Amino acid sequence: MRELDDQIMELKQEKYLKDKFLRRLEELQRDRQHEADNGKSLRLRLEKELKDVDKLEGVSLSGFFHMIAGKKEERLEKEKEEAFKARILYEESKQKLAELDTDIHALNAKIEESGDVEERLKAVLTKKEQLIHESDPALSALLNNLTEQKINLEMALKELDEAEDAALQAENALEKADSSLTSAKNWGYMDMAGGGLMSTLIKKSHMDEAKEVLHSAQYYLKRLQAELNDLGKELTTNLEVSDFLHIADLFFDNVFSDWMVQERISASASQVAQCLERLDVLQRELKAEKQRVQVDLQKVEQERLSYLHS
Q1: Which one of 45, 69, 129, 260 is least enclosed by Cβ atoms within 10 Å?
Q2: What pLDDT band is residue 179 in, cutting at 50, 70 and 90?
Q3: pLDDT for 281-308, tens place per residue?
Q4: At 163, is the secondary structure helix, strand, or coil?
Q5: Who has greater pLDDT, 259 or 104?
Q6: Whole-angstrom Cα distance, residue 156 to residue 39?
Q7: Which has more pLDDT, 165 or 310?
Q8: Which residues touch 51 (CB under 8 Å, ≥6 apart)?
Q9: Fold classification of 148-309 (topology level)
Q10: Could you report the per-residue pLDDT of 236-281, keeping only the tens digit for each?
């Protein structure tokens, strides 16, 4: 056990250094990107300044007017000075970029040298856990309990992820439906105002689009309801899928007037808007629940590892 503890301590120190190198590498990569962008701007500035010098030195309209005004030499000297400054800044930027590349290369070498330290530490901790199970029944029972808690929390997290995904898919479909219904409603008003066959066809096209995405939304809402049931939790938002099941075909029944069609389009749009509001509340609750589970999972894992590291 003592030998395992020494290995754990050594690997923890190695992992600490690797994590430190990774953080530093991330900083250097950000600095490099910033300097690369800066270098591009400085190169463009240098090219512009050199062109300005060439214009004044050569036979150009700008150079001609400056010569007539008796200020060509003064202007040329100023442009050369600006070009010189731009060149200095550009060269400095290239040097900084080269230095950053050197540091990044060195850090990558150190990180590569550490190899799979995380996996090696995990393997040693697993070995120690096995020894504990064999030699310390009380601690073994405690670890088993924590492991069971961890598994349950991981399963809950997976269920929440699936619920969030279903809610997002439903939201996307409903937003498309909302857009199609709004367009159908607007073209419906034009149709009733005597817009002719074209406005009728465009309205019908938007209604067809709405029908298609509403059927898709119904599928994801049903899936969401199933995921919420799997969670076994009472969320404060009560999202009833059954209220929504017949919206898609609502305005495709037998209708006898444009006003009736328009009313049904408006009713559908209103229900879609209400459903989007409910989804927004539900998504916020799922996010809060997910954060709570993640915190609990982190605490359980930290407690479990604390016994293995001690």
Answers
A1: 69
A2: confident
A3: 889 989 999 999 999 999 988 888 887 7
A4: helix
A5: 104
A6: 49
A7: 165
A8: none
A9: Four Helix Bundle (Hemerythrin (Met), subunit A) (1.20.120)
A10: 444 343 433 344 444 444 444 567 777 777 877 888 888 888 889 8
Where exactly are the structural domains of the chain? 2-135, 148-309
* Placement of tokens 């050199």 in the chain: 50
Cα dist. 229→152, 160, 216 in Å?
Answer: 16, 11, 20
- Tell which residue, 259, 184, 261, 171, has the closest CA to residue 217: 171
What sign does the CA torsion over 175, 178, 182, 188 have?
positive
Which pair of tokens denotes residue 130? 């096995």
Q: How far is CA 177 from CA 58, 203, 272, in A?
A: 64, 14, 8
Closest CA to 147 of 300, 261, 308, 302: 300
pTM of the model: 0.49
